[in-house]
Amino acid sequence: SCAGLQNLLQRRIFSVKCYSKQNHLQTMCPYSKTEPPKWHILDCSGSTRTHRTVPPGSILPWRFFSCKEGTKIPSKRKQNTSIITSEPLYKNILKSEQEHWNDISARYKAMTKRIKEKLEELHDKYTFNSGSPKIRFGENVYFAENSCVFLSKADDVDDGNVDVLFSTEDLGFSDTFIQRIRISPDQRYMAISLKSDNSEDATCVIMKLGHFPVMEKVIPSVFSFEWATNDVLYYTSQKNLKCQNVFVTTLTNQKHTKLVYTEQDARFFVDIYCTKDRRFLTINSNSKTTSEVWLVNCRHPFQLPALVQARTKGVIYHVEHRNDELYILTTYGEPAEYKLMKAPVASSGMENWQLVYTLEKKTKLVDLELFSDHCVMFLKNAGHLYLYVISLVSHSVQSVKLPAWACEFELESHPEHTTSTCYFQLTSPVHPPKLFAYSFKENNLIEQAVQEVPIITNCHTTRLLAKSKDETLVPITVFHKINSKELHRKPLLVHVYGAYGIDLNMSFKEEKLMLIEEGWILAYCHVRGGGELGLSWHRDGCQHNKLKGLHDLKACIMLLHELGFSQPKYTALAAASAGGVLAGALCNTNPDLLRAVVLQAPFVDVLNTMMKTHLPLTVEEQEEWGNPLADEKSMKYIKSYCPYQNIKPQCYPSVFITAYENDQRIPLTGVLRYVQKLRKAAVDHASRTGTKGNWIPNIILDIQATGSHCDSSWEESLNE
């Protein structure tokens, strides 16, 4: 139940190949002419339509895990080096890989047992800090824990005096976990999305609340949903990773469900958002570079939605509402970064947008929250986090620099926009979430008192700048134990992503703290293609600029080694999903910089995937990678860095890959082809050099029969 525009912003990039919860803002190009409309609005009085739906609310953070050092494998060891050339070989290759995994994973049983026990200990120790967000309605507080939804009075939350409103176990959803909760304005109904580890599909369950809560309705395949009134729910359906239909369902005596909106352009993804003051629902249709918003009047939920501004190529915008004015977060105008504008609801076209606030250069807008008299912006600049509080009455701006250790924020839920305090959590990979508040009355930051285990303070945070091939300075965030000696002998785990304008996930993870305690150095490389320095940072690393991200990564690792942070033989690289492009490319161009690589559901077969338009995401992905089918220049450029295309006989680092049989985003066949070709190249290199007992890297593939590309429960994440 994320608050603010952050949930809206992150959902618009849900379809990308990534593990991300918080990251949100995408790239765009400055203005151009309006595209012809490609949508249909249906009158709510039309006939009832059957509906199918699919969800996962917000995407949970991607998971990185500690690397295992490569081992010497006798050259006589037989490895599977065949390459998939036809579909009939698929099952045989899959079986062979599973046997290889079962054989090699047995070596790590003792280590696995020790790591699992340590992670469980850390999880139990710090889990209180990262409790689920609470939804407050006056004196009532709703929250989810242990697959249940609870209700308590605000004063009784910490006393354990709660009522159980919903239990996945009791209602026959035992293999699912709770993803999102929405409470109707009069608190008579509660809508919950449930998801399993094995699929990206989610189910919406509507409960009628009271002394004995009753399950009122179950809607399959729902992505996003919001209450328009006490008994009218809008929701979007998802099919084959696409979300293009909006429905409205009523829970009165005359129950009915109708189709309201259909998006015709395959590049666009649709979701629903409720403005802070509950005055409007917004139907948001977004591609990676362009967006369009329709308003549903919550006072008249069956009226036709009203268009805010027709889609204009290269212009992204999102809206909030206050006092009959729309506050518009948009990329419209110069500079081509996010800015806050406003316009009257009655005349919301672009020609009436008035500037409220413009971000500074190389500043990333992480989140925005609108209150009755204030707008709160959460910003990143030069690796530091800031709070900007804009008074919508006096127009003054208060800037607050947040603690230096903080790397991520997450807003608490705020159903009541008239509140006088903004609550949020700060965290880092090695710091459990800590609660802070900003008081609008006092104009100051308040660190919330805690009685729990204190935050770890024996970790040092360093921020560096690496000079890339074109002289661009690339930020790096480094963590290591305070007073750690001989850092050049310590193992180093480097993280990279660099796609879709998404920041590296730097929220707290138990395994990161464990590595720090065991002497590791952690480094996060904020390369181009990501969003850490704003929209231009993404533009400089997408399509025909992808190689810049690779050059950035190389420069970061070389600087770390030059400054005495570890050395190549103790260096591992971790990447997930689209981060696999840069990680795999570096393995081909500079394998000598690394000893081990850990990839999770990696995108390593870019060219072949982008040539297959029948795959669900290929068309919309063209705005990130280019279109090799229509543009020969794009084909040659993708081929120049694609990890699979550039494998050659040489001494590779050891590689550990986790993939999922049910992954709808990264085809397993592409990962299998990559592993087979990489293993063959490593063996060919060893045989050509002819040195007895020559070191052959481990190329390990763990294919998970369960799990999916995005969300997973703590238990599933722990097992991996």
Automatic annotation (TrEMBL):
Domain Peptidase S9 prolyl oligopeptidase catalytic stretches: 507-687
One Gene Ontology term, aspect cellular component: cytosol
* UniProt enzyme class: hydrolase
Localization: Cytoplasm, Cytosol
Query: Which branch of life, at top level?
Result: Eukaryota
Name the Gene3D superfamilies for this protein.
alpha/beta hydrolase, Prolyl oligopeptidase, N-terminal domain
Which UniProt keywords are given for this protein, alphabetically ordered? Cytoplasm, Hydrolase, Protease, Serine protease
Please report the stretch or stretches of sequence annotated as the Peptidase S9A N-terminal domain: 94-444
Q: Which InterPro entries match?
A: AB_hydrolase_fold (IPR029058), Pept_S9A_N (IPR023302), Peptidase_S9_cat (IPR001375), Peptidase_S9A (IPR002470), Serine_Peptidase_S9A (IPR051543)
For this UniProt entry, the molecular function terms from Gene Ontology, in alphabetical order, are: serine-type endopeptidase activity
Instruction: Name the Enzyme Commission number(s) assigned to this protein.
Output: 3.4.21.-
One biological process term in Gene Ontology: proteolysis
Coiled-coil annotation: which residues?
Answer: none
Q: What is the annotated signal peptide range for this record?
A: none
Which segments cross the bilayer? none
- Give the UniProt family note: Belongs to the peptidase S9A family.
Q: What does this protein do?
A: Serine peptidase whose precise substrate specificity remains unclear. Does not cleave peptides after a arginine or lysine residue. Regulates trans-Golgi network morphology and sorting by regulating the membrane binding of the AP-1 complex. May play a role in the regulation of synaptic vesicle exocytosis.
Q: Which PANTHER family match?
A: PROLYL ENDOPEPTIDASE-LIKE, PROTEASE FAMILY S9A OLIGOPEPTIDASE
Q: What is this protein called?
A: Prolyl endopeptidase
Q: Which organism is it from?
A: Bucorvus abyssinicus (Northern ground-hornbill)
